Amino acid sequence: MLSSAEIANRIRVLAKRQGLKLGELLLECGTTEDLLSTMRKNYPRLETIQAISERLGVSLSDLISENELTICDPVKPDDPCETTNQEEVP
Questions:
Q1: Rounded distance, CA 74 to CA 87, Å?
Q2: With CB atoms 3.0 to 4.6 Å apart as the test, which of 28, 36, 76, 77 could cross-link to 8 if both were Cys?
Q3: Are the CB atoms for 2 and 10 separated by under 8 Å?
Q4: What angle do CA 49, 53, 56 make, to 5 degrees?
Q5: What is the mean pLDDT of the chain?
Q6: How far apart are CA 74 and CA 3, in angstroms?
Q7: What is the three-class DSSP state of 18?
Q8: 4-17 and 46-56 helices cross at what angle (nearest 10)?
Q9: 60 touches 47 (CB < 8 A)
Q10: Closest among 29, 69, 34 to 49, alpha carbons compared
């Protein structure tokens, strides 16, 4: 399983790729914008991560797994797929 900081980064990357504002995503999932900052040291509640994964359209296991998560854009099927571990978002 990824560290809490790595999960937070994966959430940032996925939200960015989907054009979602991070604050709005987190509020939709019943948490605050401070969640990802606190994830540098602590894991959030499982229910919170589950809500975020559902909103991002990925399974919980894919979100927290150490395996790279492959993202393909169904709107642009000719574009190559990307993996979440290739970039980091500040």
A1: 20
A2: 36
A3: yes
A4: 140
A5: 83
A6: 29
A7: coil
A8: 20
A9: no
A10: 29
Distance (Å, whole) CA 57 – CA 87: 19
Helix (H) or strand (E) holding 15: helix 4-17
Q: What is the pLDDT of residues 40-49, one digit of tens each?
A: 889 999 999 9
Tokens at 39, concatenated: 């994830």
Residue 71 CB coordination number (10 Å): 17
Q: Where are the domains of the chain?
A: 4-86
Total number of residues shown for the chain: 90
- pTM value? 0.77
Q: Which CATH architecture has domain 4-86?
A: Orthogonal Bundle (1.10)
> Which string of DSSP letters, residue by residue, matches 33-75?
TTHHHHTTT----HHHHHHHHHHHTS-HHHHHSSSPPEE--TT
